[in-house]
Amino acid sequence: MKYRLLTTVVVLVLSVLTVQAQSGRKQIKPAPAAPVPTPTPEPTPTPKQEEKKSDLAFYIGADRNDFSANFPYSYYDAIVRGCADRLRSGSSADIEVSDRSLSRGEAIKKAKGDTNTYTVLLILKFDSMARSYDDMVVEFVVFAPGTAKVAVNGRSYLNSNRAGPISVPRGSTNALYREQLLKLAGEDAGNRILKSLHLDVDIPKIPN
Fold first, then answer.
1. Predicted local confidence at residue 204, as pLDDT
2. Does 141 fall in a domain?
């Protein structure tokens, strides 16, 4: 009987101690859940603005079929390049260059078939009083778009716009020197075309 009573008391004491221990223990709160990051919306790309094409254009070619003069093709390239460079730097027009021979008939047909392109025909020939290859002249004719009427025409001479000595590589032949003169003549033609069409701006001088 005493043993049973003692056992009961021990059980009661242990139960009281267990309850006190549990009640005194601090409850550990779970850590708050990390906030879910809000996705950053990607910036809407700015639509690219299409470059507005110029309403004006030039098509430039040279009549290379004057077999009586027998000029090197590089001479024609020089006058076409000079004219194209000047028209490009002196206006906002689109420039297209032909590397093949362009006859007068083809130039007229080209001008009639376009609505905004002036066709420039360059003709290289000897001056009427020519005594050497240095006496060449560049004739230029500009045909208006749509009608092919002559809008501008004239002549440029090899020494008409030279403002000083021309620099050519050491050991160069007379042909290379003439090509530089012809390029300047082409530039002069380009200048006069711009002025005649009232398109001339403050064109920076291209160094020789």
1. 45
2. yes
Tell me, yes or no, whether 62 lies in a domain.
yes
pLDDT band at 175 (very low <50, low <70, confident <90, very high): confident
Give the per-residue pLDDT at 66.
84
The total number of structural domains in the chain stands at 1
Which residues span the domain enclosing 118?
A: 57-196
Q: pTM score, two decimals?
A: 0.67
Burial 93-103 (b: 16+ CB within 10 A, else e): bbbebbeeebe
Q: What is the pLDDT of residues 111-164, one digit of tens each?
A: 999 999 999 999 999 887 767 767 899 999 999 999 999 999 999 988 754 444
Structure tokens at 109: 């047909």
Whether 66 contacts 28, CB under 8 Å = no
pLDDT at 23 over 50: yes
d(CA 194, CA 90): 7
**Domain annotation covers residue 208:** no
Strands 150-157 and 136-143: antiparallel
Domain containing 138 — which CATH number? 3.40.50
Structural element, H or E, at residue 88: helix 73-90
Residue 103 resides in a domain: yes
Tokens of 72: 């090197």
CA-closest candidate to residue 185, choices 134, 119, 128: 134
